Amino acid sequence: MLGYAMNLQNKVALVTGSSRGIGRAIALELGQRGADVIINHRRNSTRAQADAVAQELHNLGRRTLVIKADVADPQDVAQMFSLIQGEFGRLDILVNNAASAVFRPLLQLEEKHWEHVWDVNLRAINLCIKHAVPLMPTGAIVNITSLGSIKYLPNYGALGAAKAAIESLTRSYAVELAPAIRVNAVCGGLVDETGFSEMMPQDEKERIARLTPAGRMVKPADIAKVVAFLCSDDAEMIRGQSIIVDGGLTVGLPT
After folding, report:
1. Side-chain half-sphere of 242: how many Cα atoms within 13 Å?
2. Could you confirm whether the keyword Oxidoreductase appears in this record (predicted)?
3. Quick one: pLDDT at residue 198?
4. pTM attached to this predicted model
């Protein structure tokens, strides 16, 4: 059990958008398994949250680095990876978690909304991978998507399209970066304790929990555990896959 718990010992991981929510849970899970973790956040207002995550990792004995960077900004991304190279000299794990959305019906979306959603959710991933690969002789990349990539969710059209594109990008990179770097995606269900779930009425959350075979909504920690597995050598033969973590919601829904 101890060997499995520490199966990322001495690995260096970058988790984008890791000051809160799913990203925070992933950063802490990787740290608990032995990885040193770079915490990325975008706004000055999230610095305190990012520092708090770094402190939790420091308490575990991990090396950390907090970097403020907009992953949709090429200059910010270049600077972020330059800092990583200077501090750690390499990267073993990249988790592309940062996301942003405009929740509106498709016909109410303006061009600027589409540009924002695609810049932050799709182009940013490609940008981060391009900068990460020179620092990764071997390793693992995990992209975070959502059920909106395969199912209709109200007011989720733009983000859902971007998430579907991320899963396609994942498959392409899985082939082009093989065999040294494994690339997969984790497709989260309706995850509690996140910005999207905070907009949901409590009775809707309870309805989703009843429809979920697991008996509850997915938590950020559930996503984090699957990400950590995919980052480990135990997942050597899993490549180009989008692993759905939804407690069985999509298979349990009435037809």
Report:
1. 22
2. yes
3. 64
4. 0.94
What are the pLDDT digits (tens) for 14-42?
999 999 999 999 999 999 999 999 999 99
Which of the following is catalytic: 112, 152, 156, 219? 156
Pick the CATH number of 2-243 from 3.10.20.30, 3.40.50.1820, 6.10.140.1670, 3.40.50.720: 3.40.50.720
Which structure tokens are listed for 6? 């520490």
pLDDT score of 1: 42
Give the start-to-end residue ranges of the domains of the chain.
2-243
d(C-alpha 240, C-alpha 140), whole Å: 11
Q: What is the DSSP letter of 218?
A: B
Answer yes or no: 163 catalytic: yes
Beta bridge partners of 139: 181
Residues 85-116: b if buried by 16+ CB within 10 A, e if exposed: eeebeebbbbbbbbbbbbbeeeeebeeeeeeb
Catalytic residue from among 4, 130, 151, 163:
163
CB 157 within 8 A of CB 115: no
